[in-house]
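Hi everyone, sorry if this is the wrong subforum. Our group has a chain we'd like a structural model of before ordering constructs, and none of us has done structure prediction before. Sequence below.
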Amino acid sequence: MHNNPELTVIDPLTKDLGDGPENIKVIKNWMPEEHIKTLLDYTLLSTGQRDLQSEMKYQKAFYDRELAKSYEHLMRAEATRLYGREFKRDRTVDFNGRREEVGEHTDFIEPQFYDPLVPKNPAHYDYGWSGHLSIIVYLNDDFEGGEIVFPQHDISIKPEAGLFIAFPGNVNYKHLVNSFSGNKRCTISLWTRFKDFR
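Answer:
Right subforum, don't worry. Here is the predicted structure as tokens:
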């Protein structure tokens, strides 16, 4: 069943999964506390919040990178369990440290090659389909506000350290991040393509 009256073209995954709120998956305390701390340190390091000043920190950063790589596989495996579908191993995790809200948008994986001289069409991001799932894991919650909101589904989720959220990257799951104050909002994210949907 499809509830989105705006939708003029239904992508293959929406035909199969539908477009309802049940496709927004949330798991509390998904990541162990010691891994949260390690990856938070690495995220702050990789987003310029901390400086590498000694060989010991270089070694620690290498360990943190290896831990991050393992989460690429763990996040994809969790998505396979939740959605009952396999995913391509085509991307790795991203580290994000933000201080500002994010307006309503649709997640979309850019084509690998595009002509920089051709203007991008904003509608492409709303109605284009890159066949993927967006996965976010929060690494901290020491800030006020910063909820991720899905207006079409009337869902607002308060960030918590270790919280796992997944949802399809299409127009049915437009979302935004509320304004917040305090520390950076740090996450690791993975956009991973479904094997059987293009």
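For your construct planning: The first strand starts at residue 25 and ends at 27. Residues 55-83 form the longest helix (29 residues).
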